[in-house]
From TrEMBL:
Part of the ABC transporter complex HmuTUV involved in hemin import. Responsible for energy coupling to the transport system. It holds the Pfam family ABC_tran. It comes from Rhodoblastus acidophilus. This is Iron complex transport system ATP-binding protein. GO terms for molecular function: ATP binding; ATP hydrolysis activity. Residues 5-247 form the ABC transporter domain. SUPFAM superfamilies: P-loop containing nucleoside triphosphate hydrolases (SSF52540). Keywords: ATP-binding, Nucleotide-binding, Translocase, Transport. InterPro entries: AAA+_ATPase (IPR003593), ABC_transporter-like_ATP-bd (IPR003439), ABC_transporter-like_CS (IPR017871), P-loop_NTPase (IPR027417).
Amino acid sequence: MNTFIQAENLSYAVNGRKLIDAVSIGFDPGEFVAIIGPNGAGKSTLLRLLSGELRPSAGRVAWSGEPAEKLSPARLALRRAVMAQGAALAFSYPVHEVARQGLAVVGRRLPKIQADKIVTRALAVSGVQHLSYRNFLTLSGGEQQRARFARALCQLKAAQEHGRFCQALLLDEPTSSLDLEHQLALLGAARAIVGSGVTVIAIVHDLNIAARFADRLVVLAGGRVVADGPAAQVIDEALVREIFRATMRVDRESATGLPIVLPQTNINRCDVHAQAFLARF
Ligand SMILES: Nc1ncnc2c1ncn2[C@@H]1O[C@H](COP(=O)(O)OP(=O)(O)OP(=O)(O)O)[C@@H](O)[C@H]1O
């Protein structure tokens, strides 16, 4: 299988500090990859480099063999939809208009009836159809997140009307504001999209969720990839302790070997943290 998105020796520096440091990584068509790692590891920066939003300081990103910097914004929009982390909207649009923005570049020539159908479906899949005429700015955090997912779905779907080519959906913490029902619904929808051949790359903080939805976990720390593989191989107590600086118990599902990451029943360590905090406060 040919690699769809390939990053080679990718670095990104600000004021001499490397936020991404010589990362080489590939993504195949139709795989679900979760990027995990502690705060400040460089996950969002890596996603923005992959999406073409940021230009690397060194190295390259190629989409189906074509360097990202050579792809026009319109051609990139056909290949990938991005749901950024908490992207703010300046205007008070109704929710269906927010979703319709996904059609702005790739769906301009769609007949209205087809465009309406795409928007309606995306709103339904994202669980915000009942909020279609609400002002986006009045929605709760989780509702806004689902509306932004609908916008990304609209772009993905409209782009498919242009022909058959590889596509990716890039999600930066798509479930950070969602309750359990909607976390499972959104990631289930992303999983179904993978089934249609789209590559999904999602930044996820919940290791249990990442392990269950992704085919592969990429662990980022200090701007470098420190592990890459199936969850059953990547996640263990040592990784959680060394990379996430948390003492957790990692059990295994007997049938699948998938990790179950749990807080230690002994909470003395929490007491130590609390005492250290109070001593400084
Ligand atoms: N434009 C910038 N200028 C200076 N530092 C930056 C800039 N953008 C990001 N950083 C720093 O780079 C590091 C990586 O940021 P990034 O947002 O990629 O982390 P992350 O892994 O997504 O973190 P989180 O889990 O907290 O969202 C952080 O320490 C951040 O403060």
